Amino acid sequence: MAATAAAAVLSSGRFYALIGFEIHVKLATHSKMFSSSSSAPAQTTNSQVTPFDMALPGSLPYFNRTCLEAGIRAALGLNCQLNKISHFERKHYFYPDSPAGYQITQQRYPFASNGVFHYPLLIKKDKLKSSTKYKFVDNQNSFVIKQCRIERIQLEHDTGRSIHDDHQNRTLIDLNRFGTGLIEIVTKPDIQSSLEGESFLRELNRLLIKYNICEQSGLETAVRVDANVSLHRMNTKPDGNRIEIKNLGSFIDVRQAIDFEIKRQEQLLTNNYSIKNETRTYDTNKYQTIHLRRKEDQIDYRFMIEPNLPPLYLYDDNDKHIYGKNFVNIDDIKRNIPISPLDERKQYLDKYKDFLTAEHLHELLRLDMIDYFRDVMTHLDNNHLRHIALEVLLSDVKSISYDGRKIRKFAQAVSPILFADIIKHLEKRIITRFSLYTLLTLCNKSRDSTRSLKSFLDEHNMYAINDENELEKICLKILEENPKQIDRYKTNPKKALEQLHTSVCKKYHGRIHDDLVNDVFKRLLDKRIK
Amino acid sequence: MSLFILFRRSFSILQQTKEKILSNPIKIDIDMQNKLEHLSLISFQDEKTIKKVEQTIHSSNIIHQANVDHLQPLYTLVETELCPLRQTDTISIEKTLQTKQVLENAANIYEEHLVAPMIGKRESQTVEKVDTTKL
User: How high is the ipTM of this complex?
Assistant: First the structure.
């Protein structure tokens, strides 16, 4: 409902939205950013803490090179300018899960800035009917590509974990998470709808995982998003006021929160109220944003340069005469980063142009199936098989595993090798198209990716019946059981054949090929009529 | 003689500065009081304390008379150094404290958690709630 309302607001022509994100990404490193304790999640309480993490007197930060390299990969993936000199700063505030009384960050002097990120607009096909302005493909071979400017990327560390005990009026603190390395990605307000926001975040998620910047699960555990949303009357300039929505933890939350906020601000503007700076949070139970604090209550963080950390220097090939191997060379990292998701998709469209279109690829992206598709393609050696595999992925597999989480589970249960084997069997007519959904469901439910296809087919007797004599016997038996269809064939042959086909499929569990059984029925019925 | 003139001149500048400051007394209003209390975690209990703070700020304001236009701030004593990098991303068991060491100076602990008074949900954190009476 909020989505429809927000779409109506934006398509009315009276308002436009400006949306920007602040994204905190937990870096995939073994140890923390400024200390050498483990950054692994879900460990015994307060068992991964060094003196620095507790802010004990005399302890000093020692910056982890791996965090810097992960940050640089993110900056290169987001086409940012890398600042060769950057500074760490202290952001002061009192909270029990931050023992030092400040967080080390890079608010004013970040290591990367002024980037731009291109992402494909993803939309469900059926939504096109209600919002035709959202074209998602330009032509056969390309997506509609949007862009969002990146203001800065900064290195910082995470805080500890707080558990509020309302009954005992106390807060329980676990410092295991304190000091874990993060990067904060701050975008410009270039996003104009929740659809664009979700598309941007999905593509960013893909980049973060592909470049090994954060853990595999991405947005669900390793990424936190804050959205800044403001709605303005058409033909007016933005006044700088915006609503900050904190701690959005999933793509759905991001979309719903933005849609709710757009509708809420539209109501305020329509009633001649102005939008004032405010921080809100999203209630996932009530599907709405809730006030946290006003601009007047905004905290003064008293930023100052971190006196215990000298300036951070980055080098490139031009500085070879200055740096030693202990320092980070940006060009070395550039040479070793993988291809971007955008370029990878262009490659697929080029490589599989015989059967793959931008529409197909868009659907694979939307369903989070692109990696599974890539792995399956490598195990099939001709385009005919690959085309069949694509068709099965976008029909049967889509029905079984219709969202990102389910496709990951499907990919674990039905390995790309097993799936490729199924496609080869289908092509050789060892199994029928009709039995494919059942077979894939059985493989998915068994959760045993080491099992061979033969064991499934033997256990459930799913081999296709290809012998002509046996087929004829089966069809004769079906005709005896359905005498009405013989008479019906004289007046309405198409309907009669359909009914007979349904009967044989039900009785023989999809083990008979459509084309073969239809031919046999036609031959037998024509013979009878004559 | 010249030293005496220099001394008189310095004293006169100091006197002028003091007069300038005294003619612009500091007054802490209620918003500023709330802000200072929030930043320092100190409660200004009464008028007497606020007065003392005002006087302290008053006296400290002389620092603004220094001409620093031609100076850059010294943020760190090691600003000419390069930020040293921990080269390997390995976990150090030796440097990691045991849980009992983390908790040994805490006045209150609960199931290996440090215990702090309830302050309120911080806006940038997803905070979990638990009813420990049911544990």
Answer: 0.74
